[in-house]
Amino acid sequence: MAADKTTPPNDEVVAVSDEALHKAEAYIEAEEGAANRLMGWAGRISTTIAVVMSLFHLYAAYAIVPTQELRYTHVAFTLILSFLLFPLATRFRNRVRWWDIVPGIVAVATVVYALWGGEDFTDRATTPDRWDVIVGIVFIVMLLEATRRTTGPIMPVVSLLFIAYAMLGPYLPAPWTHRGYDLDRLVGHLFITLEGIFGVAVDVSATLIILFTIYGAFLQHSGAGKFFIDFSLALMGGKPNSAGRTVVLSSFLLGGPSGSGVATTVMIGTVAYPMMAKAGFERNAAGGLLAAGGLGAILSPPVLGAAAFLIAEFLKISYLDVIWMATIPTCLYYMSLLFMVELDAKKFHAKNVTFTPEMSLGQMTMRYGFHFISLLAVVFFMVIGYSPSLSVFYAIVVTFALSFLRRETALVPSKLVKALADGSIGALNAATTCACAGIVVGIVTLTGLGLKFSSIVIAYAGGSLLLTAIYTALIVWVIGLAVPVTASYIICAVIAAPALVKLGVPDYAAHMFIFYYAVLSEVSPPTALSPFAAAAITGGDPYKTTLQSWKYTLPAFLVPFVFVLDPQGGGLLMSIPKGGSWVDILEITIKTSLGLLALAAFAQNWALRQNTAVERGLLLLSGLLLVFPSLIEAIVEWITGRDISYTYVPGLIIGLGVLLWQARTRSPERPALTT
């Protein structure tokens, strides 16, 4: 493109201002909550509780703690820290008041009541006594308030609506009617059993999510985050497309230490954007790429997002299986992203960026390369047969031990305390979300809403798998606009996944489909926190930046449809189709890869040169025929009224035809316009 008015001259180094950083941090707070920064006695008490919480969960990972005790204790720690560290309102930040202390104590007291009751308490689940109901109501109110403080008001409101649905069943119009449940029965199911608040989601939070946040905190405080960015800069630096490549590589490496799409976007943006601006990237395009990188951090093994741990628990499979399923989609995502970066270098006539690292790539790797061992340790321990929780425990031990290889990275007592505290604090958002989502899950199982909802969706879709998949994607997407990724996945896994499974989609493919669309809420307005944070750093327009991020994340929107619609689609999840072989996995991967390259060229409006309108349309058709053929089939059958048989050959011929034509008619490159 011609130099954009918002693009600085090549010789001007653009620094990210403090004001931009403050704006970006506000978006991190919007995702993770506006936490108090406590000093003095309040700071020491909250830090001590957080450290004890981490130590308890590390002990529980290694030793045997009974299920009920583990889940209830986890929630007790979560609630008291949520009340201490997250204020009633923003104007009360950075100080602890009586209305923070009292609810925390009351919340813990309700959990102590439940644990003190022992087996007698759990036996009263269907017929709770008066005190059980009172304590249960108080606990639910405290949980809703803690969730409001950490994640905002939407999730508590959704939970209250589900409670209302459970109580008002007989008065609802068909087909939503059910027998209805009184308050005693609801409290017994949600508070006393392990099928409500203390169900699967809290179990995952207590056994996996918090261990991974501790693991991420250990990596971060040992300097892994800084090393991964420096390593990416040193490896990719000095070339016109080095800035974009750095964003892609560092976002993949930072997925483990950060665990947050917004935080990853900000962390990379503060370092990489000055380089991108100097190379010639337009502000909105640069912000879109940063947000796409942040999204990739949630999709990338070995950590993925918190919802990925829930997939393993819902499907009763190993977390290693989830990592395995995510491998090819992650490779496709980053392949497409890298290809778009290469096209960006052509479009924006990117300039060489002078980058002089503090040390050479070899020196950096020799000194700090042990961080790669720390990052891969968790997968190694799972591969040799340890459980996911024990694998993370040993990975944390390895990270701690390796940190002492360099003096500046050593987790000395002061750093160790900070890492342990940050590990627990980092889990609070997901922990309250999981506990509150337990209300939704409990009511769905109690009322049978999941099967009812799936029947309704299938009826609206007329039994069509294509329409059911599209409706499911829209449902997950809309819910994801209002609630965090983890909650969005939990809600849709119990109400929407059954519809896909009923129509013959394998359960693992249905859950991965829902997981990907839940994650896409990160780049979807009005809660597109990652693009908005990126725009704050680059100074771009938030909504234009969001549109650019959609362009870069195109594979994440389309590849999930391959899981559920293509007969070979399970191959992308490393599952050999029935009656097939590994050749099917290879074939669907190649076919999807070529389709994504065509769609990337369409989205960027550039292949070998800038596309004409006709060429762009043909690239779109080629990409859809290769990646999303069911949509084209449905449209053609609707128009012609005839059943058609599809192969990938037409898509391949069209795409190759456009490339050959562009190679033949290639003219001297002219500045491209922003798309």
From TrEMBL:
GO cellular component: plasma membrane
Pfam families: DctM (PF06808)
Membrane topology: Multi-pass membrane protein
Residues that span the membrane, as ranges: 45-65, 71-89, 101-118, 130-147, 154-172, 192-218, 285-310, 322-341, 372-405, 425-449, 456-480, 486-505, 554-576, 588-606, 618-639, 645-663
Domain of life, per lineage: Bacteria
Domain TRAP C4-dicarboxylate transport system permease DctM subunit: 139-559
Record keywords, A-Z: Cell inner membrane, Cell membrane, Membrane, Transmembrane, Transmembrane helix, Transport
Major location category of this protein: membrane
InterPro entries documented for this protein: DctM (IPR010656), TRAP_DctM-Dct_fused (IPR011853)
Cellular location(s): Cell inner membrane
Gene Ontology molecular function: any one: transmembrane transporter activity
Function of the protein: Part of the tripartite ATP-independent periplasmic (TRAP) transport system.
Protein name in the entry: C4-dicarboxylate ABC transporter permease
Organism this protein belongs to: Bradyrhizobium icense
